[in-house]
Amino acid sequence: MKPKVLVARSVFPATLERLRAQFDVEDNPDDIIYSKPQLIERLHGKAGAFTTGSERIDAEVLDANPQLRVVANMAVGYNNFDIPAFTVRGVLATNTPDVLTETTADFGFALMMATARRMAESEHFLRRGEWTRWAYDMFTGSDVHGATLGILGMGRIGQGIARRGALGFGMNVIYHNRSRLSAEQEAPIGARYVDKATLLREADHLVLVLPYSPQSHHVIGAAELAQMKPTATLTNIARGGIVDDAALAAALRERRIAAAGLDVFEGEPSVHPDLLTVPNVVLTPHIASATVATRRAMAELAADNLVAALTGGTPPTPINPEVIGRR
Fold it and tell me: Which candidate in 20, 268, 296, 327 is catalytic?
């Protein structure tokens, strides 16, 4: 008898067919986001699950489904997983790093540029029919080339953004991270490690690329925004909750920073209503990895993890590898 698995959200047909060849699959063609009781019910009898960031898997869900052996997340982030709860119960968690690095770095840099050059604000102006003449100061923004690029969180994606800034736009790159890069990683892009206060104070364009955790919750709040230049921009492609969205909206409204570009939000898909009322913000619906090729690669890597975990192989990207072999 084939192991039973749940595919919790709609996914590429080819990926679904691949899983059906190996498993007894329950899918979700209507792409409903399950409530916790629905998710618990759907997981009954399942050995594995294919999830996205929409599904919160915590101790309650795991305890209700003790037969569950692996949950494969189609995302690099996994703040929807209670990893200590997984590990205590011997359940493997996996994610999809690396395959989205360059695409996400592309998007992060594009969002930063759109923010700096006021692209969304000026487009709305044009669409409203308000463009009737040229003016010397019409939607003047800030330069990207030659500016200081500050990166908070210098993992794979942060390094990708740093390369684009330094090598493509001649930017001065500074960064803060839990651990400093090696000299070999810093040298090609001239990246300079600084403390957080220096990063906030010196960056012309601050990009957030750090993982979400209880320790990084509201790491950018009112106090941190007050340390930034009034001409600075803030771009968040990391996770919602890293920024205090209410404090950011206030800073934007009062022009204490120049502009922001946001692809992630606290409580998404809900967006703080104050962010919808300020003009100097570019808002996108969590699409940094959204190219066909990258999303296919993410789906296939999640499937690779699920197949390996349930057929005696070695999952390529485990989050808690210490549980492998325990069940």
Answer: 268
- pLDDT tens, residue by residue, 142-183: 999 999 999 999 999 999 999 999 999 999 999 999 999 999
Contact criterion met (CB below 8 Å) for 71 and 53: no
Per annotation, catalytic residue among 18, 118, 176, 239: 239
The predicted model gives 288-308 an average pLDDT of 98
145 catalytic? Reply is no
Active site (annotated) includes residue 286: yes
> Quick check: bond before 269 cis, omega within 30?
yes
CA neighbor of 76 nearest in space, from 105, 53, 49, 106: 53
Q: Is the pTM of this model over 0.85?
A: yes
Q: 205-208 and 148-152: which strand pairing?
A: parallel
> Is there a catalytic annotation at residue 42?
no
- Domains in the chain with CATH codes: 4-99+292-323 (3.40.50.720), 101-283 (3.40.50.720)
Which of 156, 163, 192, 286 is labelled catalytic?
A: 286
| DSSP letter assigned to residue 120 | H
